[in-house]
Specification:
This protein is about 40% helix and about 20% strand. By secondary structure, the chain is α/β, with parallel strands linked by helices. The strands form two sheets. It has a five-stranded mixed beta sheet with strand order 3-2-1-6-7. It has a two-stranded antiparallel sheet with strand order 4-5.
Length: about 180
């Protein structure tokens, strides 16, 4: 029998693959629903959060650039009066401030993380060089005998010298619509 909540982590590649779609009916929103039901607890590293911020900000800036080009092309073809009369005046009022769009994109991500009630792990406090640390080394995950390793998430394993015994402790990796259990 599974003990709830199940602790999961979401890597940036999951957010990218889902196109940062935080809509009510999206795959990412399903995770929020599981959190609200108490089935799942999300744990993110500060590295993933910073990386996701960069990715979503870049997407926002890309959309901003596309909309600026659309606005410029529309004004080459018609006057602003004609555009407004056609009911397309909203393209004239679009924000062209890339910094503002970038920040709004990051705010969307932060709202999603707040909805997830995610625990953010600060990895900067891990001292890998300390002699008294039980951490031996960190290595990328490699699936044994798996030629399609690039389809799996790329978590890092922390190898412990004397790992504590915790019965029924499992790690789950969320990869698109699949959950892998260790």
């Amino acid at each position: 029998m599974i003990k709830y909540p199940i602790y999961v982590t979401v890597d940036t590649n999951i957010l990218d693959a889902a196109n940062f779609d935080f809509n009510e009916k999206s795959t990412l929103q399903l995770l929020v629903n599981y959190v609200k039901k108490g089935k799942v607890k999300v744990v993110l590293s500060n590295i993933v959060v910073k990386e996701a911020e960069k990715h979503i900000a870049k997407r926002g800036v890309t959309v901003c650039s596309l909309m600026r080009k659309l606005r410029a092309d529309a004004l080459k073809t018609a006057t602003d009066y004609q555009i407004k009369q056609l009911g397309l005046g909203h393209i004239l009022d679009l924000s062209t401030n890339k910094a503002e769009i970038s920040q709004k994109s990051i705010d969307l991500l932060h709202k999603y993380i707040a909805d997830l009630d995610a625990e953010i792990l600060d990895t900067s406090k891990i001292d890998l060089d300390a002699k008294n640390s039980s951490c031996v080394f960190i290595s990328p995950y490699k699936a044994p005998n798996d030629e399609k390793n690039n389809l799996l998430p790329k978590p890092l394993y922390v190898h412990l010298e004397n790992p504590p015994y915790v019965p029924y402790l499992h790690f789950y990796f969320l990869c698109l619509n699949t959950i892998f259990r260790t």
